[in-house]
């Protein structure tokens, strides 16, 4: 295990000593491809573990926490296991996670620049983000306003799409509701009317039987005036009461019964009177019965069409449910009829937002263009000191014409595509020598040049790019002498604001490091092992001497090594 401390760490060793072990190990921790060939023959698995110090509010810490990971005293523990069969497992903060999460964390933790593996600023999105940070408030202010307007436009567009794509369905719904509300309104039903009409129809349909029964009952209670000898219930009850009244003084029980008979007599008289009135008022008109049945048919038709949904327990039953449906339908119809006005309002707001976004996007383009010119000049100047005196870096800021003007915004008199960060595509380009066309940096530089270009870019962007760690694999390839010293000096400058790890063969670069690690291979005849040790004092001088002269104990080499260390320390 070796600790990569903050500052500038140089990793050195003899050719073939396995310095790429550091790069490969970090690559696995950062979600790189798991190659079973990395597992030593005879071993079951290879394991890489890392401890990364993070602020709890750092984006990587927040993303890890979302995945269930926990920080250990401010450190995030990451491990990757690769089996000999090629299976791979990842753990973050004590929690097993998909390997893809390591790649997400890597975007926020480490920028890797190597001969065959360039990450970070090679991605156009990161180039635009870095340029925006480099530009500062000139881009930051308009970008905040643009983002707010963009989000509102997206919401408005979604509402418009919902309203317009469902226009036919809404029109059909409105027609059905309007017909139903008008049909119910034409019938003018009253609450509970169907129940009342059902009771009236029952009476009218049995009027003769009801009248006959009422007449007989009345005669039984009040007597038949046409039959003087008939005995009515009222007379009999009165006689029974008189009989009991005569002896009630002798027994309280009979006195109580006499009182009750008196009540019966009164009740019988009342019922007899009501029966007489009922018979007189009973309407046996067949025409009225026809009217009632016709009205009931109209109401039944409404109930069948608009009656309560079994799932709608709060709408009542019968005609009450129909009235509840009509009330809801009228409200919904008002909403649907208002959609046309809403579409007009949203369309006007959408057009206004597009105009506003076009103006803000133009401000962003202008600010980015100014920042890009300053950035390109600064990187070009850096490259001149890194043995690339004729190289020229430019930043291409362009927009893509919208195939359909209705889908774009107007920027510079053109309808162009736009996104959440504006309408600009940002691309870093390199012309390695005079006469060469400017091409994307990933294609315009050779393997050895690319790392130096990225170093120059990172130095200029230092403080703007939020990545806390940079890993350069042989950034010094193809340079030497004064250019190598400048590479070392710039790496040291970058290390003032971030952690820098460099795999290097050049003593001029290693001398600028805050700490130097030596990777050595040992062989016991059967197994070859790579080990890492920290070089300090005399050991570091000896290694730099070996790198300079090929001899660890060369007096001239040692003197030169000490001179390099002193010069590097003095220039910091």
List the main descriptive attributes of the protein structure presented here.
single chain; 572 residues; alpha/beta; Rossmann fold; six-stranded mixed sheet; four-stranded antiparallel sheet; 18 helices; 15 strands; P-loop_NTPase; DNA repair protein RecN; DNA_recomb/repair_RecN; DNA repair; nucleotide-binding
Q: Could you walk me through the main structural features you see in this protein, from its secondary elements to its overall organization?
A:
This is DNA repair protein RecN. One of its GO terms (biological process) is DNA repair. It holds the Pfam family SMC_N. Helix content is 56%, strand content 15%. The chain is of the alpha/beta class. Among the domains are: 1-109 and 467-571, Rossmann fold; 170-334, no CATH class. The strands form 4 sheets. The protein has a 6-stranded mixed beta sheet with strand order 6-12-13-1-14-15, sandwiched between helices. It has a 4-stranded antiparallel beta sheet with strand order 2-3-4-5. The protein has a 3-stranded antiparallel beta sheet with strand order 7-10-11. Helix 4 crosses helix 12 and helix 9 (233-247) runs antiparallel to helix 10 (252-281). The relative contact order is 0.12.
